[in-house]
Amino acid sequence: MDIATTNILSTDFINFIVVSLMSLVIGLSQRKLFSKNAEESKTFGSDRTFTLIGILGYILFVIGDGSLTPFLCGGAALAVLLSITYAHKIFVRNHMGITSIVIALITYCLAPITYKMSITITLLVVVAVLILTEMKEKFARFTQTMNDEEFINLAKFLIIAGIILPLLPKIEIIEGSGLTPYNIWLATVVISGISYISYLAKKYIFKNSGVIVTGILGGLYSSTATTIILAKKAKDAIGQEYEYVSAIFCAISMLYLRILILLGIFNFALMTQYWFVFVIMVCVTGGIALFYYYKSNKNKSLCKPSEIEDKNPLEFKVALLFAVLFVCFTLATHYTLMYFGDAGLKVLSILVGVTDINPFIINLFQSDYTQISGATLVLSALQAIISNNFVQMLYGIFFSNKRIWKELLIGFSIVCISNITIILIAL
Q: What is the mean pLDDT of the chain?
């Protein structure tokens, strides 16, 4: 009884079932596609064909008993037959697609994938085949919406993140500053990555969204730029002022979330200790946004996506400016601590709020300042955010009109008071 059970549940038996079933699944997906295209169905096999191709690959791989010769010979024979099919497809049917033939070859390779790697990898391969097959039309529609620069943008990001970054040395430029070429470029890559993801989501996933989504995604990219844009648009949004105020505070909420993400990336230990500080501020600003959203008109905004989505977050000039600011703030922080200590850092954190605070905050989280406590680092980050929030309030008031001045003053006052309260209680 035990021998029979062992034989039934042997590795060969289980692998045969997996290969056969997965080959059948691929075949069924192909039959569905063939049913949509009568011409295609005349030039290639059905679900049984794909299943038998998978079983053939299994048999030839197993009987080889460690040698790939039978499997490779069978693959060569299959390739010849598929080549004849493709030639017929080109010269008789005048079709150029090679997808079904490639899928047949993948099906033939399921057995060695199952044996040499794992059943999990086999399932992943099949899932990838099914998804790529079923999403043909969606991919076609998606590529039509892309402009000529998108793949160039992607190539730029891959270059700065996957090629340049690993090549940079980790040797300090100035001793004791923690400033290295690697750290400088890593900060640029991280902030560019967050901006790039927000840019893609706004442009392709939430393309026709209203101002609330603009505030959320724009806040991940740049809360200051988003605040200015929404404040400008609020001038002409008669009857929808509260919705624009809500969107502005959504952007501020995302500012705190972005800082929390940066803290987790560059100083996970500090994030586990002070995560609640930023979560509270996300909730406070999100609550303000929610309050003004419910005060807004019930009619949804018909505003077109804001112009922030058309800006390329991977502009070389922007990346270069960020790197320069990062170096400047790192050196300023280093020498401030050297000559003025913690008190000087607290003053510096307030002053940098009038500029882009990301380089300063990343420098705080990334560098190993042994002479500074974690509480002081978080305090400095919050002070920079408070200063930056004050500047954003001024931007909002300057670029909007008096219909929302009161709301902006009240909302930002609550944010600043909440920030100060957390500093006094938690830090």
A: 81
